[in-house]
Amino acid sequence: MTITAYTKTVGEVAAQSGVAASAVRFYEQHGVVAAVRTQGDQRRFDESAACRIRVARMAQRVGLTVREIAEVFATLPRDPQPADWARVAEALVTEAEARTAALRDQLAAMRWGARPGDLA
Amino acid sequence: MTITAYTKTVGEVAAQSGVAASAVRFYEQHGVVAAVRTQGDQRRFDESAACRIRVARMAQRVGLTVREIAEVFATLPRDPQPADWARVAEALVTEAEARTAALRDQLAAMRWGARPGDLA
DNA sequence: TCGCGGGTTCGACCGATATTGAAGTCCACC
DNA sequence: GGTGGACTTCAATATCGGTCGAACCCGCGA
User: Fold this and answer.
1) Which fold has domain B10-109?
2) CA-CA distance, A86 to B112, in Å (whole number)?
3) How many Å apart are CA B57 and CA B59, to the nearest integer?
4) Helix ranges, chain A (H)
5) Which member of B96, B102, B113 has the closest CB to residue A103?
6) Looking at residue B109, what is its pLDDT?
7) Which of B93, B108, B117 sits opposite A104 (nearest CB)?
């Protein structure tokens, strides 16, 4: 049973997640990732940080805000297991599908400017 | 064959589409809707304007930007017919589904931190 | 003719999502 | 125990998607 430690620097997490270090700090400020501080006040992230950020970026593409993503991630325990990630993944995909379905339904419900007499 | 005229004021379009008049002007600036001007320099929109804006708002919910939406709408002719709207609707839903699929695929492709030896 | 409820432009401001730069600190390696 | 690269904070800047207010214009009805 390996204890997942807080060992990654902001730069390492940035490299592993494909975003700028400034974005990693931004995500920490907004609760997408968590960090502890060294004696010298530097951030140290755990293994899940890069993962969280990669997932967050994908979720942003389907219209979720950073706040919404942080809320979903708030349900993750420390050192998330595959089952925890699976649950989060499903929540995100379900939300994306719900929004797409809402788009489709509302589009379908529109009367498309069918002015009576126009097609008659 | 009714010729669709430019008759709606900003306020009318705003009311019909459920957004503020300032937003209608914003959408015009960004190519989501088009307007002609009266002698007195006032905007006049056609019937499709409110429709475009309602659709645009839905599309924003699934992560499309105003620019992307404007590009899709750029394919609409003047006085769009139901078939034109159907094509646009399909393009938007398809894009939303593609983004959701990308999210799901990338989530599925992740190794979920399965560190060798951890589950052993 | 006057009033007034719209419309107009323009620029300031907002919140979200970051990026950049300055000034200073930390720490890993030699 | 240096040195240099990576880290820190804070403020400014940028883009996106709007909103608001000021100051002004336009047309309609009393």
Assistant:
1) Multidrug-efflux Transporter Regulator; Chain: A; Domain 2 (1.10.1660)
2) 8
3) 5
4) 10-17, 21-29, 48-61, 66-73, 82-109
5) B96
6) 82
7) B93
Q: Are A50 and A23 in contact (CB under 8 A)?
A: no
Nucleic acid strand D within 7 Å of A81 CB = no
Tell me which chain A residues have a C-beta less than 8 angstroms from the C-beta of B49. none
pLDDT in tens, A51-79: 999 999 999 999 999 999 999 999 999 98
Q: Where are the domains of chain B?
A: 10-109
**B3 contact A CB<8A:** no
**A60 to chain B: which residues are within 8 Å by CB?**
63
pLDDT in tens, A8-56: 999 999 999 999 999 999 999 999 999 999 999 999 999 999 999 999 9
Q: Does A104 touch chain B (CB under 8 A)?
A: yes
